[in-house]
Fold this sequence. Notes:
Layout: E1 18-21, H1 27-49, H2 66-85, E2 88-93, E3 98-102, E4 109-112, E5 119-123, E6 128-132, E7 138-140, H3 150-163
Antiparallel strand pairs: 1-2, 2-3, 3-4, 5-6, 6-7
Amino acid sequence: xxxxxxxxxxxxxxxxxxxxxxxxxxxxxFTGLGLLAVTVLVSVxxxxxxxxxxxxxxxxxxxxxxxxxxxISGGLLGVGLLSFIRRRVxxxxxxxxxxxxxxxxxGLWQDFPSEGFDRLEYEAGTGRLYEVRTDGRRRRVxxxxxxxxxxxxxxxxxxxxxxxxxxxxxxx
Length: 172
């Protein structure tokens, strides 16, 4: 029986997983944190200036001035935190030739090719990854090269194309 070229015991050491991360800049998170800190400081300063007036501390509920700044800083914080929470775009396993990526709707991790699909294909012109059925029908994997760090995406594509080269055993 011939050794399985996809298994790690085929005579070569197992290849490491390739992770591709989000290229979003954390500046929105830090801008949001800065605006939040300034808003709290302004609210506290206004309260200390005139303690008898109603406190201006609930800036997030609206009101003059700080309510708008609070809303903007909250939005920037949310977008910035989301980029850190969803930092990893995909993980490619060269041994199984599978990709783990987030579902766009709920953000849950899924393995591709999914059940009922035979293989993965990369379309260089559009930069899209597809899972393909045996009959040739394709479905797009929810991964976007525009979200990814360029060098990591190129490393993933190079490894993916090497693994799926026509002469490669196990490629279809």
